[in-house]
Each structure stands twice: as C-alpha cells, then as structure tokens.
Amino acid sequence: MNEKIILPVFFLILISLSVLVFAQEQSTAPTVPQGRPYEPDTSGVRQQQGRTASVLFIVAVIASLLIGIFLMVFMIKNSPKIPNLIIHGLVFFGSVIWFVSMIFGLLSQLVKFGGIPDPDIIEIGWPFLFLLVFSGYLTFNLIRKQDFAEKMKYTLSLSSGGIIASVLAIIFMIFIGSIFNLDGLGIGLMGILIFTIGVVSSLILGIIGFFIDKSHKTSNK
Question: Which residue from 37, 56, 64, 95 could staple onto 132, CB 3.0 to 4.6 Å apart?
C-alpha cells in the first residue's frame, strides 16, 4: 500500500475509535427514575468528560506522532533548507529568550532572598539548555553553509519531525483541555511532561541522524 494512503487510513481509524468510545460513554449515561425530580449529577458528567478527554489525548498524541513521522520521511527525501532553518531558528531564539529569563529569575531571587528558594525554574528550564546548543549549531550552519541541509539531512529531518510532533501534541492537548474545561494546572503539568519528552526525543533522533549522516559521508569517500 502506498504511504500516501496509509496516513489517511490511520487518521480514519483513530477518528472512528474516538467517536465509538464517545458514543458508548454517552449511551451509558445514568437515567433518572420516574416520579423523582431531576437532579443533574455533576460529578458523573465531569468523570465522563475526563474519560472522553483522555481518549482524545491519546488520539491526538498518536496523530501528532504520525504527522511527525510523515514529515521526517518527506524531509529526508527532499532535504528542504528553509523549513529546517525556520524550525530550528525559532527553537533557538525561543531557547535564548527562556535562558535569559531564567538567569534574570535566578538573579532576582538571589538579590531579594539571598538564595534560591524556588528552584523550579531550573528544573523546568534545563531542556532549553540542550536545545540552545543543538538548534544553535544547526541554525548557524544552515545559514553559513549552502550544502549543509543536504549533507546533514538525517540530523535535520529527524530532529525537526520530533519537534513538530511535540508542538502539535501540546497544541492538541491545550485545545482539548479548553473544550472540556479541564484543570489548568493539570494541563500545564502534562504540557511540561510532553515538552520534556519531546526535547529528549528530538535530541536523541538528532544524534541518531548525525551518526547516519557521518556514516554516509564516510562511505562516499
């Protein structure tokens, strides 16, 4: 089967499963006995919304991964310079902004409290340090070297696909959470978890792609 057909089929299966689960949950909603005043069970509705949102979260993550894999294959075949430059350029400048804000946050705590009573900013921000170095290296080489996108196509394609998949998963998660009015703190913590997993996965994919590119370069000599 052509890979152009496989992706829509996966999407149809995932959407069908989510609709079936939602319909099943709707059909099992409690009924109100006759002769008694109707009193809506808010807790039951919230639980049902939570179950539906969980299913949609899983579907959204799977869809994000499929889109990321599809883009990886597409970028490996075409080695596009501009899309990779835009993706890693935005990640690099976002990492710089976060790194600078983290430094100012730590300095303000030192000045105000004489120490760092809230180290969460370091725990949350450490993935940006790896992104800063990795995306900075790729961004500046894409600008300086004309053939860098072709020579390092696996490094760029695998890491870019991982970044896009992570961003899509976070966007879908926020969108689903807003629809079902889920707890903002839980959505934020889940977003941080997905972001951290996405950063680590993108770095691992980039490192794997780097060794593939180097092996291809060695074999071509």
Answer: 95
C-alpha 205/C-alpha 69 separation (Å) is 11
The conformational region for residue 35 under phi > 0 = left, psi -120 to 50 = alpha, else beta, is: left
User: Do residues 62 and 12 make contact, with C-beta atoms less than 8 angstroms apart?
Assistant: no
Q: Write the pLDDT tens digit of every residue in 34-70.
A: 555 545 555 666 677 778 888 888 888 889 888 988 9
Of the ranges 25-29, 92-96, 217-221, which is most confident?
92-96
**Continuous H helices in 79-152:** 81-113, 120-144, 148-151
Residue 192, CA distances (Å) to 123, 167, 188 in order: 11, 11, 6
CA atoms within 13 A on the CB side of 125: 19
Q: Which two tokens stand for residue 176?
A: 């689903």
Give CA separation, 139 vs 61, 88, 197, 215, in Å: 27, 6, 22, 22
Q: Domain boundaries in the chain?
A: 3-219
Q: Alpha-carbon distance 59 to 122, whole Å?
A: 32
pTM for the full predicted model? 0.73
Q: Which residues contact 28 (CB under 8 A, 6 or more apart)?
A: none
Closest CA to 192 of 102, 132, 131, 126: 126
pLDDT of residue 44: 66
